[in-house]
Amino acid sequence: MRLFELGNERPSLDKEFPRNIMPQIRIEHLKDSPFQTEHVKELTANLKPVQTQRVKGMVDKAKRGFADGTIRPIIVDRDNYIVNGHHRYDVARGTELDRVNVIRVDATIEELIKHFSNTASQEPTMKEQLQAKLDLAIRLREAKRTEEGKSPHKKGTKKYKKHMAAMHAESQGKDKPKQNNPVAKHSRNMAGAGAHKSPKDYDRKNKKKDISSQLDEGPYIASRSDIVHSVMRELEAKAHVDDNFLHHLAELVGKKLTQRNQDNHRGRWVSQKK
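RESULT FIELD:
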């Protein structure tokens, strides 16, 4: 049996109980109970429903019962709250029957629910069915995650941590496309572009250029190392084009230079101590 909720046509309720706690009282149950009962014809308008959930198919069964005269009386408490017979009440109300057969029990509906709790229907409501399906799906998903995350190594060991880290990395990069390094792609050294210059390297190079230009322009205050580098670069540049200047530099460090091929400016040179 499947339960459904009544729509906007349902009457307002001043008491409401879930169907799965409502007792399914029969006449035979009342015969052995301590409660007094009476069989009466009651105005349909005086009956008070206390639940909104219905079982599909039960309304049709109630219609057939009214049609062939086999319909059972509706069970109500002393204040006409319906204990058992909501589907019969729906049909009576829908077909505009003025009166219906009821068995009125001299007790409150709360007392009857407690006393006849063993007769309550165990049919889950639609909400409970959906919640059960949701819980099952969550448990299955968690079980799958646990199974996928198992490691053959003892928890807490280095091998365990390494294995779990590898599994995590694999799950993170499983669907990610491989990305090329756009800098290395266009590098002259395609096989191994190596370390690229950092902004610090470029700053150092620009700084040296600035020192040289400022030495040319006038007095400049800098570290000894920066001054030495700047001066040495200028000396080297001049020594490449001026033989006399090269000889002079060699003498400063106690060397004597001899050019093997006098006609070739770029020929071999011999350096020896003076």
